[in-house]
Design a protein that fits this description.
10-stranded mixed β-sheet; 7-stranded parallel β-sheet; 1574 residues
């Protein structure tokens, strides 16, 4: 169980890898915003009409564009620009015209005419411009509509080709959101729609088959921030939406939805590009996407189911696949030989069958898993339909699925009609409702009408009847002999353009000269993949690039800008060494925080230096004072008092100076004391103008004395103002002296006392105070502030206190020491440390980046070494080497591209050039390289394959066989319904009946209760579905419709399994038994775009221990996986689709002629079955198209449509080179073919892979490739190339046509293709469709000698029969020409040894007597010189009048006897191409003119022609002209008379000259590969 779980875990991751969730609408395959739809009458949109009562969303009819109004002749010559072009908006006119005329005297005169001179002309121009603008405004919208119509046509074709993998959706609720996981730009609300084509209008309609909206939940699940638990409720709300086009209601829903997704979500009318949060808007869009979404959920369900219930119900296939080889009893399947029509007692095959189908059932019962190989057209669908009938009769639940819908399209219709109601075919949304309704109503009706007892009795009776019929069949069959014949009378035509002899001669001649290219190519049929110039350039690069340089440039090298230059490295080294030296041996003293930044450190360092500088500027006194300040806090207080007093004194100083300035007081020094002030107070207190007079001078002698001592100038002071001034002076001087005394006390220790009487004492005092004050401020504002600031960045203050302790004995010295030895030093160290670490970090980062590229080798490893060693010179050297290396990037890229191109074909040669081995290491390309390549390629050999035929069944048993078929059908019907009704549970019955009643009430679904009833019906549907026993749907729908935890089937049948990749294992999980139907010879899963590396990683992760796990690489199909698990395929061999001439190419190419063509050609009107068609002048363009070939194919199809023989025939086109050619042809048919014909003919153009599982009545194969520009063969395409891919493609392509296959090619196979080119084989086969019969004959030759002789004879054009029986004798080979025969005997091999010589001679003698003539070829003679020997044989044959008489071939290689139908088709196609190119008139009058011209130029024999000899009829072909109008065309229709035919021949002579140069040449034939003529 663990191993099986691992497989599905791998598939889960594999699916997510290959099919990631698309979250951007631009990444979808196609999309169209409906807001862009032009408003024209040809376009109807539900969003324009808002009519919600219908399912149609959009209809676009093809608009017919009208031509531009034609200007008047008078202004035509004046108009500038392409005025008829709709896309040119502005049309101007010339300002003047110059005309040259001759004057009377014959002189040339220039006349200048100005536009504005003619007012009428100006008015006409303006009027026409207005008319043109009106036309343009109308038609430009129609042009947009036409572009949309054409785009839908292309989309319609694409969906038809790949309907199984694509689905069309209508989306709304456009979310745009930039999340961490994804960018979301996609609609969230989805509705499945279908694109319909109505060819009658013609128009394209996009509509819903039922209104069922859903959320695009996978897109929401990729965003982890979305609360997933809230999604179910909003999902349910989305499913309940009435109509996706209901704008108003849906906008409200969008608003709720975006808020559920994210709280920041908002609804907007237009997206805000500046907002990255989730936004949602109303913006309906139609888009095409891949059908891949269901796998993820489905596989999750499988894994959960395995974890819960284990793998007990899985078929043995899974056990074997994972390596659990259970022992099974050897149940040998005994194949009875009494019938070959699949008749068996217990197996009920309700359709015509063979024993291969019977064997499938037997193997299924025995082994639970069957592998069926179904080559093209071998009735795989028919077989599966037969299996369904039998399985229903056993009461089994069956799921039939396929990679494509094509394989299942008609399966249900193939099932026996009475059992079809038990099958549901879900191939398109349109069928789902109808299918379910019919099946459930039938089951409900049968449940009530069938009586199980009566049914059981009827079954018993039918089984007894069957037993009796089988016994009769066996008895009758015993009389018959088994007929088996492997000897088809096929005619083989070898198609080598270079004979083996010529090839051998060339190889022998080239030995030692041309054999210098080593190894073999991957495809030994292709041309030299490089041009001569490219090879010269490639070899020249050997010298321009050294091997080491090539090796280095192959690595992921860094951008040169990310590598330091030598100068930058030197600078970094200098910085590194500088800072390293600065911090070397230094250990930090201060614990400065680690996260401090460089700027802050630098700031602290600068401040410390500034403090130190200011400290050093202090003089000794300042230092002493500062020391005192630091030591004595009271000292600071004293100074603060001095500062205060000084402030007060300064306030008085002004008054003091003013008094002295205005007066000249002379005051004795001894009076400068307080007593004087007291006396002055007394005097002043008198308040008299003259306070000291005679009286009081006597009473107050001190007053008088004072008066006499103080003068103002020459006079004693007298008035009161003088006394006041003197008082002020004395007070000021006293206070000043007191202040000076305090200062002297404070400075007494440090300096001399201040003389109070000194000149300018105030200035000196002020200077001292300022100096001291500065010291006080410095200590507080600088030192202490800095200390506080620094401590914030320290982690350990204890250490700081220890280091920064100030010695009070000598504080200044201590501070200086702290600044120098601690602050500055530590901060400097920290700063250097930071710089060092920054540089070191840069080195580390850069070193890490270099280390990543070290493994690249020289010079990166040496640069890395130089970097590590800090070697500047070495670094400069290798940096220059790297810089020079980058200059060679362009040379390397060119070399790499050329090596890759060469390596895809010739890996060993490429390796020799890479390793520069021998001449492949030279800078000059070897000589004759084209011949050397040819020599290398001509060593390839292709084995011939065998074929055999199947036996017929005796006609005597047909009647019994018919009765047995009737019995099987009736018995299967009775048993199927018996099991169905018996096994239906009560719960299922109730659900079905409830659903049926609900649908009855729903009616047409237009009532008010319709939405509710529809919801109820949908709720009942899952349980109802379990009652339906057979489901038919593609894999994409399986994973969408079933839950692996609930839905299981008894049998799973997977068709076209060779196209299904390993994801198909998920569908097989649902079954108890499995049948895998496919073909490993047809197209396998496309490996283009596979992420090999990622898938290999997934294999390593999940599939360890799983056998052959390397096959789970995306390139293997489910068929391959089954086959590799040991299941041998049962092969279906009876071919029913193609006519034998068509299928035989595929039969020989891929199946060794094991396929048995059974199709009868008698009722096919279109002949021949295979038509070769050579296109002249066709060439392939760079984009894999051949436009000329495409035009021919399109015209041929149009011509076929016009011929009644092709009425009702479906037509397809397959490009054998990519899809581009198919698109080119489809585009032509979409525009050139009537839409009704396009649709009714089921036109499809695609690649072989797109046609696998499909078929058409007529298929056109486009080879695409054209002749080489250089001449000689084009690149060889081998059938074994690319892992047999080309063979598989050609196998599919050549097996799609039922009635006719056209091989259209632009090559001359004899010149442009090599003989072992698969295209050569196909073209030559088309020229002669019976060529495969010769291949069949070759296997009957009894020795290699005989085979080689026979090949040469057949290549020469002789009809050869090996081992010709004459009585009891056999002849080695017989050459036949009509009724003439010649016997050829090859002596020296097997039956012609010496000991049998006598018997051999006797045999020849007897035969010669009977009239036989012999040519004997000796083996020694042949092998010594094959060419000369065979020339002799041809000469001998000529002597007996034996000519190469296989179908003659014209000189240009085309069949001479083209039948009348093909000639007519070619002729009409020629006329069609002329019409397309504008070379043929498209009306009856022009045709009659052509006839009249022909009448006037009739041939010399003077035969008379009359118009009645032919008639002109309107062609069925409708051509779309350049103006997009439908045009009717006319073609010649000649009466059935000789005269008319002669006219037809002459009229069409020119168009037929490629194929009918002249009658003489056409009637002359020569043998192909005539060795005798040079």
């Amino acid at each position: 169980m663990a191993q099986i779980k691992s497989v599905f875990n791998f598939l889960k991751d594999y699916n997510e890898l290959l099919n990631p969730i698309v979250t951007e609408i631009d990444r979808q395959i196609w999309h169209y915003e409906l807001s862009r739809a032009p408003e024209i009458e040809e376009l109807w949109s539900i969003y324009q009409t808002k009519d919600l009562n219908q399912l149609k969303i959009l209809e676009v009819r093809r608009p017919n564009l009208k031509p531009c109004p034609v200007p008047d002749e008078s202004i035509k010559d004046w108009i500038l620009g392409d005025w008829e072009n709709l896309n040119i908006e502005h049309i101007g006119h010339k300002e003047l015209n110059t005309k040259k005329t001759k004057s009377e005297d014959s002189k040339i005169v220039q006349d200048i005419e100005y536009f504005v001179e003619d007012k009428n002309r100006v008015n006409q121009f303006n009027s026409w411009i207005k008319e043109r603008e009106d036309w343009q405004s109308r038609e430009i919208l129609k042009k947009e509509g036409l572009d949309l119509y054409n785009e839908l046509f292309k989309l319609y074709s694409l969906i038809k080709r790949e309907s199984e993998s694509l689905e069309l959706m209508l989306g709304d609720g456009h979310i745009r959101w930039t999340t961490e996981e994804r960018f979301i730009d996609h609609p969230i609300l989805l509705q499945k729609v279908n694109l319909k084509f109505d060819p009658n209008k013609p128009s394209f309609i996009i509509k819903c088959d039922e209104l069922k909206t859903e959320l695009y939940t996978p897109m929401l699940r990729v965003v982890s921030s979305i609360n997933q638990s809230m999604l179910p409720e909003i999902m349910q709300e989305a499913e309940d939406i009435d109509h996706i086009a209901d704008k108003e209601n849906n906008i409200e829903f969008f608003k709720r939805l975006i808020n559920v997704i994210d709280q920041k979500g908002k609804y907007v009318k237009d997206f805000d590009r500046t907002y990255n949060g989730p936004m949602i808007t109303y913006d309906p869009v139609i888009f095409l996407r891949k059908r891949t979404l269901g796998y993820s959920t489905f596989i999750d369900g499988i894994i959960e189911d395995i974890e819960k219930s284990g793998s007990k119900d899985l078929p043995d296939f899974f056990e074997t696949m994972v390596g659990n080889y259970n022992e099974h009893k050897n149940n040998e399947i005994i194949e009875e030989d009494w019938n070959y029509n699949g008749i068996d007692q217990d197996v009920l095959l309700t359709l015509p069958a063979n024993n291969e189908q019977l064997k499938i059932i037997k193997y299924l019962d025995c082994y639970n898993a069957v592998l069926v190989q179904g080559p093209p057209g071998t009735g795989k669908t028919h077989t599966i339909a037969n299996l369904i009938g039998h399985l229903l009769s056993k009461g089994k639940n069956v799921l039939v699925t396929s990679h494509t819908e094509k394989a299942l399209t008609v399966l249900k219709d193939k099932v026996f009609k009475d059992l079809q109601s038990l099958c549901i075919s879900l191939l398109s949304a349109s069928s789902q409702r109808k299918e379910l309704d019919a099946a459930l109503f039938e089951i409900a009706e049968k449940t009530t009408s069938i009586d199980l007892n009566d049914s059981r009795k009827k079954i018993d009776r039918l089984e007894a009847e069957r037993k009796n019929l089988i016994n009769k069949y066996k008895a009758k069959n015993q009389e018959l002999m088994k007929i088996r014949s492997n000897d088809y009378k096929d005619i083989v035509f070898a198609n080598d353009t270079i004979t083996p002899i010529d090839a051998a001669k060339f190889i022998n001649k080239g030995k030692g000269k041309y054999n210098y290219i080593p190894g073999e190519s991957n495809d030994n049929t292709v041309l030299l993949p490089l041009s001569h110039d490219e090879l010269i350039e490639l070899y020249k690069s050997n010298e321009l690039l050294t091997p080491n340089e090539e090796k280095v440039l192959a690595c992921d090298i860094p951008d040169l800008n990310n590598i330091w230059t030598g100068d930058k490295f030197a600078k970094k080294i200098e910085e590194y060494l500088k800072y390293k030296a600065l911090i070397k041996g230094c250990s930090p003293k201060l614990a400065i925080i680690d996260y401090i930044d460089k700027r802050r450190i630098l700031e602290l360092l600068d401040e410390a230096k500034s403090i130190k500088e200011s400290l050093n500027k202090f003089d000794d006194i300042q230092c002493d004072i500062l020391s005192k300040i630091i030591r004595d806090e009271i000292y600071v207080t004293f100074w603060e008092e001095v500062f205060q007093k000084n402030i007060r004194l300064k306030n008085k100083y002004e008054e003091y100076r003013k008094i002295l300035f205005e007066n000249e007081y002379v005051i004795p020094e001894e009076l400068i004391e307080l007593d004087t002030v007291s006396i002055l107070d007394e005097i002043i207190s008198t308040d008299k103008e003259v306070p000291v007079n005679g009286l009081n001078s006597l009473l107050k002698p001190k007053w008088k004395k004072l008066q006499n001592a103080i003068f103002n100038g020459n006079k004693r002071i007298e008035n009161i103002e003088d006394y006041r001034n003197v008082k002020s002076i004395i007070n000021y001087v006293l206070e000043r002296n007191k202040l000076i005394n305090k200062i002297n006390k404070l400075l007494g220790e440090f300096s001399q006392e201040i003389d109070c009487k000194a000149e300018g004492i105030e200035i000196k005092v002020e200077a001292i105070i300022i100096k001291v004050q500065k010291l006080l401020n410095w200590y507080k504002d600088s030192w202490m502030y800095y200390i506080d600031k620094l401590q914030k960045y320290l982690t350990n203050l204890n250490t700081y206190n220890e280091l920064c302790f100030i010695d009070m004995e000598s504080p200044i010295e201590s501070m200086n020491k702290i600044l120098n030895d601690v602050f500055i030093q530590e901060l400097q160290l920290k700063y250097y440390s930071i710089l060092f670490h920054e540089v070191e970090k840069e080195f580390k980062i850069y070193g890490n980046s270099l280390e990543k590229y070290k493994a690249i080798g020289d010079p990166f490893d040496r640069l890395n070494k130089a970097f590590k060693e800090k070697n500047i010179d070495m670094y400069r050297t290798y940096y220059e080497n790297i810089a020079n290396l980058y200059d060679k990037v362009e040379v390397y890229l060119k070399r790499t591209r050329l090596l890759y191109k060469l390596g895809k074909v010739a890996p060993e040669w490429t390796e020799a050039i890479i390793k520069r081995e021998g001449i492949h290491g030279s800078g000059i390309a070897p000589e004759n390289i084209d011949l050397a390549w040819k020599w290398n390629q001509l060593n390839s050999q292709i084995d011939q394959i065998n074929s055999y035929d199947t036996n017929a069944i005796q006609k005597d048993i047909n009647k019994i066989n018919d009765l047995l078929m009737e019995n099987a059908r009736e018995l299967a019907y009775e048993k199927a319904w018996f099991h169905k009704i018996r096994n239906t549970t009560d719960e299922q019955t109730q659900a079905i009946e409830g659903w049926r009643q609900t649908m009855k009430q729903l009616g047409k679904g237009t009532g008010k209760r319709a939405p509710v009833l529809l919801k109820k019906a949908r709720e009942l549907m899952p349980l109802c579905q379990t009652a339906i026993p057979v489901w038919i749907m593609p894999l994409s729908r399986v994973v969408e419709n079933f839950d692996p935890r609930k839905n299981k089937f008894d049998v799973i049948i997977i068709d076209e399994a060779s196209q299904a990749d390993i994801l198909a294992l998920s569908a097989l999980y649902l079954g108890k038994k499995i049948i895998i139907v496919g073909d490993n010879e047809q197209v396998s899963p496309n490996s283009v775009g596979i992420k090999t590396r990622e898938i290999n990683a997934l294999i390593e992760q999940h599939l360890q221990g799983i056998p052959l796990n390397h096959l789970y690489n995306g390139e293997s199909s489910i068929y391959d996986i089954a086959q590799s698990s040991g299941f041998k395929p049962l092969m279906l061999t009876e071919h029913f689709r193609c006519l034998p001439e068509i299928i035989n190419f595929s039969n020989g190419l891929s199946y060794n002629y094991k396929i048995k063509p059974l199709r009868d050609a008698s009722n096919v009107r279109i002949k021949p079955a295979v038509v070769p068609y050579r296109v002249p002048d066709g060439y392939r363009t760079f984009n894999k198209t051949n436009k000329i070939e495409a035009e021919h194919i399109a015209s041929l199809i149009c011509a076929c449509v016009e011929n009644e023989e092709y009425d009702g025939k479906t037509i397809g086109v397959i490009s054998l080179l990519g899809q581009e050619q198919a698109y080119e042809i489809d585009k032509l048919l979409q525009t050139k073919l009537d839409p009704k014909e396009y649709e009714s003919r089921e036109i499809q153009c695609g690649s072989p892979a797109q046609f696998q599982g499909d078929e058409r009545d007529v298929i056109f194969l486009s080879i695409v490739e054209g002749p080489s520009e250089k001449g000689g063969p084009v690149r060889l395409v081998s059938e074994s190339g690319r892992n047999d891919m080309y063979r598989k493609r050609y196998n599919v392509a050549t097996s799609r046509a039922k009635d006719q296959m056209w091989v259209v090619y632009s090559l001359n196979p004899e010149i442009d293709l090599k003989p072992d080119d698969i295209r050569y084989k196909l073209i030559k086969y088309a020229m002669n469709p019976s060529i495969g019969e010769f291949e069949e004959q070759l296997k009957h030759a009894e020795s290699e000698f005989e085979k080689e002789v026979m090949k040469i004879l057949q290549n020469q054009g002789y009809k050869v029969y090996p081992q010709w029986k004459v009585g009891s004798y056999r002849i080695d080979m017989v050459v036949e020409d009509g009724v003439k025969h010649i016997a050829i005997e090859c002596d020296g091999e097997r039956w012609h040894t010496p000991d049998k010589l006598a018997d051999d001679m006797k045999r020849q003698a007897i035969l010669e007597r009977l009239g036989w003539k012999f040519i004997r070829i000796r083996g020694s003679q042949f092998y010594r010189n094959p060419e000369e020997t065979m020339k002799w044989v041809f000469k001998e044959l000529d002597s007996y009048n034996i000519e190469p008489n296989y179908q003659g071939v014209s000189l240009d290689g085309e069949n001479v006897k083209e039948n009348e139908l093909i000639s007519r088709v070619k002729r009409i196609a020629e006329q069609i191409r002329l019409e397309w190119n504008g070379e043929v008139a498209d009306d009856e009058e022009a045709v009659l003119d052509e006839f009249n011209t022909f009448e006037n130029e009739r041939v010399e024999d003077k035969s008379s022609y009359n118009i009645k000899d032919f008639k002109i009829k309107e062609s069925k072909r409708t051509v779309v002209g350049d103006d997009n109008k439908l045009k009717k065309n006319y073609v010649f229709d000649f009466e059935n008379n000789t005269r008319g035919k002669e006219i037809e021949h002459k009229i069409n002579n020119n168009s037929e000259k490629e194929y009918d140069e002249n009658n003489a040449n056409n009637n002359k034939t020569v043998p192909l590969f005539d060795f005798r003529k040079k």
